[in-house]
Amino acid sequence: GAGVSQSPSNKVTEKGKDVELRCDPISGHTALYWYRQSLGQGLEFLIYFQGNSAPDKSGLPSDRFSAERTGGSVSTLTIQRTQQEDSAVYLCASSQSRGGGQETQYFGPGTRLLVL
Amino acid sequence: GNSVTQMEGPVTLSEEAFLTINCTYTATGYPSLFWYVQYPGEGLQLLLKATKADDKGSNKGFEATYRKETTSFHLEKGSVQVSDSAVYFCALSARSGYSTLTFGKGTMLLVSP
């Protein structure tokens, strides 16, 4: 597709359940980022992928959060045993090559997660 | 560490008014600076960027100049339109290697006819 896509667009789950969020980056983009947008915290970085490797996981808030990327393309963010404070919009972005600071990151529409 | 501070909103203006949204940053080295915009119900879009001191980014009538001496990247537009109503985010990234974006908290702009 032309842009970054994410699915589902909305997810409602019960506390304690696991959820998987998917990101499909722009074709050919090797750098992929996950961010979280919440009312209290604004936009926060979660994890960065270069190819299938994740050299920076420093933003993951707890060990309940994990992510993987396969084939240098699609990425999945998994949240285990969801808590109400996980409710947020999860954003994925991709950029063209090494993810250098001057590159533009292109964002997907986000997945809105609500944990009841 | 890196941080971005931008003015709190909402900013409410009448159509054709002049807009300034202040943004200042703290960073090691020489970051690249960005303004992203989020229209209602849509994702984040890059509005403009500047990658070195004194560069001016511009797009859709919006401008921002990278001021190293004041560590600022204020967003301006001479005449806003109702369609400019959105949330505006100032952000920075380090210039070397890979880089995550550090965002300000966002400023909501509401433009009335």
Structural notes for this entry:
The complex is a heterodimer of chains A (116) and B (113). Chain A is mostly beta strands. Chain A is 0% helix and 51% strand. Chain A has no helices and eleven strands. The N and C termini of chain A lie far apart (33 Å). Chain B is mostly beta strands and 113 residues long. Chain B is 0% helix and 50% strand. Chain B has no helices and twelve strands. Chain B has strands at residues 3-6, 11-14, 19-21, 23-26, 32-38, 44-50, 56-59, 62-65, 75-77, 86-93, 102-103, 107-112. In chain B, a hairpin with a 5-residue loop joins strand 5 and strand 6 (44-50). The mean pLDDT of chain B is 93. At the A-B interface, strand 4, strand 5 and strand 10 of A face strand 5, strand 6, strand 10 and strand 11 of B.
Summarize the structure.
By secondary structure, chain A is an all-beta fold. Chain A has strands at 5-7, 10-13, 19-24, 31-38, 42-50, 53-56, 65-69, 75-79, 88-95, 106-107, 111-115.
Q: Could you tell me the number of beta strands of chain A?
A: 11
What separation lies between the terminal Cα atoms of chain A? 33 Å
Classification by helices and strands of chain B: mainly beta
Mean pLDDT level of chain A: 92
Distance between the termini of chain B: 41 Å
Binned strand content of chain A: over 45%
Oligomer: heterodimer
Beta strands of chain B, count: 12
The most extensive contact between chains is: A-B, 26 and 27 residues
- Characterize the biggest β-sheet of chain B: 6 strands, mixed
Spans where pLDDT lies below 50 across 5 or more residues of chain A: none
**If you average the pLDDT of chain B, what whole number results?**
93
Query: Given the C-alpha coordinates, what overall shape of chain A results?
Result: globular
Specify the helix fraction band of chain B. Answer: under 10%
Query: What is the 3D form of chain B?
Result: globular
